[in-house]
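Intended use. Records like the one below are meant for learning the mapping from a protein sequence to its folded structure. Do not use them to infer anything beyond what is encoded.
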Amino acid sequence: MSAQTPTPHPDAAPPDATGPQGAADVPPDGGHRRGFMHDVSLSAVLAGFVAVVVSYSGPLVIVLAAASAGHLSTAQTSSWVWAISIGSGLTCIALSLRTKMPVITAWSTPGAALLVTSLGAYSYAEAIGAFLVTGLVITLVGLTGVFGWLMRQVPTPVVSAMLAGILFSFGTGVFTSLKTAPLLAGSVLLAYLLAKRWLPRYAVLVALAVGVVASAAGSRLDIHLDRIELAKPVLTTPDFSVASLIGIAVPMILATLASQNAPGMAVLTASGYRPKDRLLIGSTGLVSTALAPFGSHAINLAAITAAICTGPESHRDPQRRYVAGVSCGAFYLLIGAFGSTLVVLFAGLPKELVAAVAGVALLGALAGGLTGAVKEEKDREAALITFLATASGVSLFGIGSAFWGLLFGVLAHLVLTRWRRTPTAAAA
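Structure written out for the chain above:
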């Protein structure tokens, strides 16, 4: 290789990648990266902020419901919120800087949903023991490369279709919000379209600002902040029991890997990046393990909020979107430092505002997923099955629709392409 031939950065998207978000246009950078401050942009920072708003306005409510069902004290609940926020923040920042990809992590939403019905059946110490085992197993699965190998067997159109299916309800949420809050949702949509025409990089920012003003004008903001105080982590000694391992750890492992990490890897792949599964899954597993004694049930790759940061609204240059991951992590750390105190700020936002802003922020990623799903004619039917199964929201055995969409899509792909008789065999 001559001295003039650039060597691609190991974490950069390949020159021939065909990711739906335009990563195919990213040239090799010779292994030389610009500084972080040079790559910072308002649109990427905003994308990280919107991702955090969506996380604390929705999935965190499930965590608080689980804490209530498990009869946790205020201190234990605050420690739980602190642990999952700090874990998500640290992994977002470290992995995004390390890989130069917008790696967005979060707490396991299906895992928290599982705890709503099961946490009350065990002592808090037993739950902590189950969280610890969950983190260790996910770390092992990630570091061995087994999870990544399985994901690499999935056809690209099926992955894109799963992404589109995940985001479908968020896209329609913009319009379903018109029924209950027509002025609020309508103003967000109109502001986004107008800004997209004249200020495309700040379209989501304008939509969010207009939505907040419309909410205030309609007396829809319900924010009551009595005091702000730092969170105090509560260290709990784990207790291990067969019952809690079977009732909490096993379903938590399956739900986190299938319903969170698989779609999370798919979002990055569909956006044209080449995520290193051992690094990403292994790292989130290790952090989950370390923070389990403080209440963290599981830290994993995010999917929906990740799509906000991996799309063109984050930045037109895919190599500069990693800033959104760093921004997301910084906001996680800021909010996590105050435990559940600042959660009320996000809980007071109208659900229609959150739905509308999330919907317009995800339009680019949804369009990319649909494009990638139908690009290859031979895989269109398998991709369609994946999309429909994922978008249906079906949940079987405690595992969400994203996994089942992926499974049905792969089976359809095998039946329609791999297991067909060849023309020679048919003639014989």
